[in-house]
Amino acid sequence: MYRHTHHHRVTYGQTDRMGYLYYGNYPSIYEVGRVEAIRNLGFTYKQLEDDMRVMMPVVEMQARYRKPAYYDELLTVHTILDELPTKMINFRCEIYNEADEKIHEATIKLFFIDMNSGARVSAPDLLIQKIRPYFEI
């Protein structure tokens, strides 16, 4: 299993009239989690696209809202891979509030697409090489 953690502070502009983190902003927070999880492995989404010519469109997201997040709250965001990617990569994401309560969770599925042909492809070798050690423990 591969797990990456980062923090996100809720900004005023991300809240709704009730002072809650607006429900439509959660996917953006998870996107940052995915980008930083890949960066933590030693390469970037930008390299996937520019150098390897592979993009990763989201094809499905399931979300569960447990409790609201509030303006100026520091959230802990966990981005988790429970299995090695194949032609699809499945991220399990969790957000915890400052009291360490799970307030939101989601699963997000993405495909690997060759940017030149538009065809669905397997996960890039570099990604597999970087992530495999986390599954051999």
Mean pLDDT: 96
Separate helix tally: 3
Task: State the share of residues found in helices, binned by percent.
Answer: 10-25%
CATH architecture: Roll
Q: Look at the helices and sheets and give the structural class.
A: alpha+beta
Strand content: 35-45%
Low-confidence stretches: none
Order of helices and strands: EHHEEEEEEH
Distance between the termini: 9 Å
CATH topology: Thiol Ester Dehydrase, Chain A
Tell me about this structure.
Helix content is 20%, strand content 36%. With 137 residues, it is of the alpha+beta class. It has one domain (2-135): Thiol Ester Dehydrase, Chain A. Strands 1, 2, 3, 4, 5, 6 and 7 form a seven-stranded antiparallel sheet that branches. Strand 6 (102-114) and strand 7 (120-121) form a beta hairpin. It is globular, with a radius of gyration of 16 Å. The N and C termini lie close together (9 Å).
Search tags:
7-stranded antiparallel beta sheet; alpha+beta; single chain; 137 residues
SSE layout and pairings?
Blueprint: E1 2-9, H1 26-40, H2 45-50, E2 54-55, E3 58-65, E4 74-81, E5 88-96, E6 102-114, E7 120-121, H3 125-131
Antiparallel strand pairs: 1-4, 2-6, 3-6, 4-5, 5-6, 6-7
Concise description?
The chain is an alpha+beta fold.
